[in-house]
Amino acid sequence: MKLHNKTYIIAGVVGLLSAAISCKKPGNNNSGTSNTGCNGQVEMTPYDWVNPPRFPQAELPADNVMYVERIALGKKLFYDTRLSNNGENCESCHKQSMGFSAKDVSEFDKGLQKMPLENLAWYKNFMWSGRIVGTLEDVMFAELTKRFKTDFTKINEIQEYKDLFCKYYGTDNITPELMAKPLAQFMRVLVTKNSKYDRYTLGLEKFNYAEEQGSNIFFTEKGDCFHCHPVLLLTDNQFHNNGLDSVYAKDIDKGRFNFTGIAADMGVFRTPNLRNVALRTEYMHDGRFKTLEEVVDFYDHQVHMGVKNVDPIMVKPTKLQNNGLKLTDIEKQQLIAFLKTLTDDDFTTNSYFKP
Ligand code: HEC
Ligand code: HEC
User: Where would you tag: which of 145, 148, 210, 355 has the fewest CB atoms within 10 A of its CB?
Assistant: First the structure.
């Protein structure tokens, strides 16, 4: 797709001329800067957003309309190490085979676990602590400017990107705000909706006995998981203290408090999505648990019920009385069998998401 230098110069002249006669380009270039060499947006293929059956309707932003070409550009950026200055790309910490999460905590993030990227189109609260409230475009802006500290002088020297942004956004002046847009589109299409659990809810497949029992534990008062990890999305995208700590030893353990400074937010985290949870190798914000068995043991009898702002769900009278959920070993295994039905092989192997 690389233009010859000569073509580029001609295109530049045409671009300047059209700018001079203030001819409005179809792409509605809202950068307000001169974009030499850019002849404006080309015609693109609208992306047909199919909301998965029974999911709530996702809100798509009006100022970043989805097109097949823009999503492809976002994917290209996702896998491009030139966005960072240390050889990393987004995939370094977000691997498709693991539901776009990855092994090990991130040093850069003070020991926070790498997050999965799935069904983000339904979120408003982002990051473990919910420190970003807004759109995926806002999150991408942060990942570029704060994490990668992307060198936009360098990026603006890459002719291929200048051409692609010109064609798909009508400007070749690549800013962090602009680059955030196609990246956010790629994030939006990372939809996982074809796990065994989904096929079960649609009546297309049956659960075995253990999965069925586990599902009952998860979605009834017995396990009480569904209050924060509700049907289908498996996260309420809200904030809770689930009683993980009574002493907040590490800075990151304070969660939302770090960002609001409000005492009631101490140890409060945004509920994580449990889809593809069995593919992760560490659990909770700091990756303290290595297996689902450890997670279930925690919910069963290690919740710190005495913590002042622990979520009321965690300290219901029966739980206080029993000092936890009091699940049997078999029930714990059944709960885990259910969690494994949330794995979506279509999602983790889909070639549409591959570079
Ligand atoms: C060094 C590892 C690393 C790299 C590289 C990285 N991320 Fe992340 N990402 C994380 C961690 C850790 C978090 C959670 C940070 C927090 O909670 O403060 C995160 C959070 C996110 C989230 C929020 C998910 C949610 O559920 O709220 C998105 C979206 C995201 N990253 C996308 C990207 C994209 C796109 C790139 C490339 C531009 C990228 N990340 C590069 C480690 C990384
Ligand atoms: C009061 C709300 C609430 C309830 C009830 C709840 N959770 Fe959670 N869950 C959370 C929050 C918040 C986190 C993240 C905590 C952290 O990282 O510090 C979490 C984390 C998890 C994780 C780790 C996910 C990851 O990616 O690291 C798993 C697995 C999990 N919960 C399963 C369950 C199960 C199973 C139940 C029922 C036995 C349950 N949860 C009940 C709020 C809740």
Answer: 355
What values do phi and psi take at 314, rounded to 5?
Answer: -75, -15
User: Rounded distance, CA 320 to CA 305, Å?
Assistant: 8
Cβ-based neighbours of 138, under 8 Å, separated by 6 or more: 126, 132, 180
C-beta contacts of 202-207 below 8 A and 24+ residues apart:
202/53, 202/54, 207/338, 207/341
Which residue out of 217, 295, 328 has the highest number of ligand 2 atoms within 8 Å of its CB and is therefore the one to mutate? 295
Model confidence over 134-181: pLDDT tens digits? Answer: 999 999 999 999 999 999 999 999 999 999 999 999 999 999 999 999
Q: Render pLDDT for 256-273 as a digit per residue (tens, 0 to 9).
A: 999 999 999 999 999 999
Q: Are the C-beta atoms of residues 258 and 251 closer than 8 Å to each other?
A: yes
Tell me how far apart the alpha carbons of residues 193 and 130 are, in angstroms, rounded to a whole number: 24
Cα 70 to ligand 2 centre (Å): 34
Span from the CA of 127 to the centroid of ligand 1 (angstroms): 8
Report how far apart, in Å, the C-alpha atoms of 230 and of each of 33, 68, 147, 294 are.
46, 31, 31, 21
Check if 187 has its Cβ closer than 6 Å to any atom of ligand 1: yes
Q: What are 302's two structure tokens? A: 């290690």
Residue from 201, 185, 96 nearest 140 by CA = 185
Distance in Å, CA 114 to ligand 1 centroid? 7
